[in-house]
Amino acid sequence: MAASTVLRLSGITKRFGPLVANDAISFELERGEVIALLGENGAGKTTLMNILFGHYVADEGTVEAFGKPLPPGDPRAALDAGIGMVHQHFTLADNMTVLENIALGTQSLWRARLDRSAARQRIAQLSTDFGLAVDPAATVSTLSVGERQRVEILKALYRDARVLILDEPTAVLTPAETDALFRTLKLLVAKGLSIIFISHKLNEVMAVSDRVLVLRSGRLAGERETKSTDRKQLAALMVGQEVKPAEVSQVQVGAPLLMLDRVSTARHNGAGLDEVSLTLSAGEITGLAGVSGNGQAALAALIAGTRRPTGGRISVAGHAVGDWSPRAALGHGIARIPEDRHAVATIGDMSVTENVIAERYGSTRFSRMGFLDWKAARAFAEEIIADYDVKCPSPEARIRLLSGGNMQKLILGRALDPEPAVILASQPTRGLDVGAVAYVHRMLLAARERGAAVLLISEDLEEILALSDRIVVMSKGRLSPPSARGERTIRELGELMAGHGGEGQAA
Amino acid sequence: MRLEPKPAPSLALTLLFPIAAIVATLLITSLLVLAAGASPLSVFYLVAKGAAGSQFALLETLTRATPLIFTGLAVAVAFRAKLWNIGAEAQLYVGGIVTVVLGTGALPLPSVILIPVIMLAAMLAGGLLLLGPAVLKTRFGVDEVVTTLLLNFIVLLFVSMLLEGVLKDPMGLGWPQSQKVIAEAQLPRIIQGKRLHYGFVIAIVSAIVVWVIMKKTVLGYEMRAVGHNPEGARFVGIPVNRVLMKTALLSGGLAALAGFSEVSGLKGNLTLDLSPGYGYSGIVVAMLAMLNPLGVIASAIFVAGIFVGADAMSRTAKVPSYIADVMVATSLLTMVVAILLTRFKVRWR
Amino acid sequence: MDALEILFTASFWVAAIRIASPLIFATMGELICERAGVLNLGIEGIMTAGAFAGWFTVYAGGDLWTGVLVAALAGAMFGLLHATLTVPLGLSQHVVGIGVTLLATSLTYFTYRLALPEVTSPPKIEPFQPLPIPGLSKNPVVGEALFTQTPLTYLAFLTVAVVAWVLYRTPVGLAVRAAGENPSAVEAQGISVTGIRIGAVMVGSALMAIGGAFLTMSAFNSFFFEMINGRGWICIALVVFGSWRPGKALVGAILFAAFDAYQVRLQQMSGGIVPYQVFLMMPYALSILALILVARRATYPKALMIPYQKGER
Fold it and tell me: What is the ipTM of this complex?
């Protein structure tokens, strides 16, 4: 081991039941180096980092930090060895102050009094040294996403971290915040820290790293010096095949099927909608881009029927709707593919059959006089399983036991089987492998050809660009005017996402 | 230590878990028997004999099981929809109140009409009593565990007030008890001269009806969906609040039938000791049955057997009959652990 | 005496503070559990066990403070049982809590019958005596109400101060509050969520048991079946009413106790026109009312009742 090697992973293997999340992964990290860990969702990046940090215990393999073996399954040991981790979902207690969150666990638990002044001084020092401005007395719940991330980095620095792991740190940031983060990372490296940067975004990886490790299906698929590679090569390594863009055929745009007229909602997982107008027309995919937390969740909930508007009007096929609910939305022919497969779209402890009839159990097809027709339900489940190529042991299996891709296929089947007029697809490919992603894309394009109006909400700009006939951008609960395919550059879209320009309304 | 979900176990294995829980319970409680200076084997033998060793014992166990089937069903139905009804005790007493109000001569009707009328009225009253906490839960977010628990105390005081006031039996020699219900309002005995009454049959029929509701009907499907994942249920268009209201009416109604059956079939009148905690034991009955309505019949008979058997045992052995309550409470805790093990695999690393 | 005048008599407030004391202990206990993310419905049974354990220790020849200690240990043991099932195993806190209450209650009754098989009325002990604080107890009304109590009441007030200090001023309190809000924040800083939660439930349960022991060792001098009589459930309402803050919960407990003391006096004055049961119902009805009033704007600890598995986010 070279003197400058700070971290060495040897033969890390981790299995979850039959799934091999990490398969004999080995690499080293040098002092002052930025490694990018690139891979698709589900490639095993987060699992690997959770092993490194002691949240999980590897089935095989060892981790060495600064020449000493790291005991497995002990986050405390990782922290003490100088490894800090900034998780994708922040690990902050919202009801406590910045100072309290940073100081948590840094002083002996059994002290009679938390030493606040020492903590405050040290935080102030680190803030100036690394340009991470944040008020230590502020309660976390009042902070912006960017500020919270700064707190997470400060937490690691406060503990003298020499290695910093960042898990998808830009997913929740605006482009400007992302730039600020990259500047901070440069500063950290200049002071001798080493960084592991986990991402599935090629442009970021190219911008920030010295070396790229590509993970595919739990294996290390390749290792490249960033200087001597390019995006195309990395993309091929990442998915294991030539990436072919989905084929988009010409389709005549038809009548408007769903119209939102200056609709506002209460806040919902981030911003609410602020007088949003949007028209979805037959035979058209409308892509909605934006940084997470800017009102996409509110819009998805509104169209799905789980939230009612506080102002404005919704009309379906030219008629204003009355009472608005999930049932009303379904009744108006709106199919919903929600963002959260586990908590929202499915009922994990119920069977596949019980889940596929969930949106239509009251129809005469599945029930009579208050009694369910289980034979018809099971037949329907078998039909969906066959038509949508779902791998599952039987229609009686609990849906919780299915893989993400198969679960999503069932949800697609349930939503698309009645040939809906409008389709709401919210982050439909998040966390899926390449095959499943391509499948979902094909299904959405097929629906478009059939004449459905599709709203595709995604944080993945490449997905939006590949599929959408029109693109709108959401920022702080407001919508930009739409642009046709190819009309705006990525840069222009990025500026809209950051909330600059385009205060007008979509037609 | 981690818990990982695993596929549903086979039926045979599913039946094995309650048995394992009971064995664990016997092992744990035998320590108490030893502490009391008795031999566990002989004590458990005496309990079993007292519960099922003779025709008398068996009939007594079934009689005691009757209210437990009703309260067990009430809890099973509510817990399925994750409506935490800990107030079956209060709903039972409300059923008793309705039975004596309507059954002591106010309605001069023949038996075949009077008894169904009383049953429906009792169910309605019990259901409405639980509807309150259910509305507070859905409208205001008030935890129903606490409200149903507190209502148990309020209702018992209310019964005491009635029994010393408007419902007081003038011939009761000052005891706080109501008048006896008239002959037309009484459930007949199944065997002449024995205590087992037709309430037991009604309880069995109720269990079958509830099973059909849970397995075959839209309402049962909705209740299970709401219980497993309310957010998911709301998303797919199930009217979650309305389902919870229906659940409350059904659950409260079933518990009220326990009160009706005890007054109409066994005691004849309402007293403050109508229930020795049947409402709370109903929770154990439901959990031992893994919330399966048909399983409730078996687990109610089992729990009743422990109580009846322990009473008989304590007359001969020097072990307090409270051992029965300890066994029942312990079996609740061993059972939830057993259920966990049917659904999850424990990995130690 | 006029119904309003009662409020200005020292004896009324002395009674109110006495009634508040067991509630203060148990409310603080429940508050600690819930702040760490665990709803402890074992409270009613744990108070019963504490009431018995403390009293019986003294009856068997131990001194009063030994009794308090034994009660606390008994409570902590039931807390350990509760926490083992709900924290690492993640079982339903509702079902386990009810189970612990049933178990603690029945074990107490069993032990009582085993230890005292023959007695018809439970034996009495020499309980804690009032200990007027020199100088302070002579102040009219307030001084008398607060400073002519038993040492156990003083301990109750001290407990509130200690709980508040620990939760807001010490590193371990920080960890407890974070465990109830976002357990992954605790684990990310190298502290075991399981350890913090189990510890909090054990300490909280010990306080509940001391609350029970107050009844048999300070308010009364003997142990009766069903003497807790729903006080545990009321304390759960008080925690919500107090927005999970020790100071507010203390105020809630005293207000509640004052109301309870007041209804007893009104009952005596009403001369039997209103049935006494109506007065007895009031504390329970008041608890429900308090829950309704605050439930809408209550900010629950976010992780309350949500089990945590290592590495989960």
Answer: 0.94
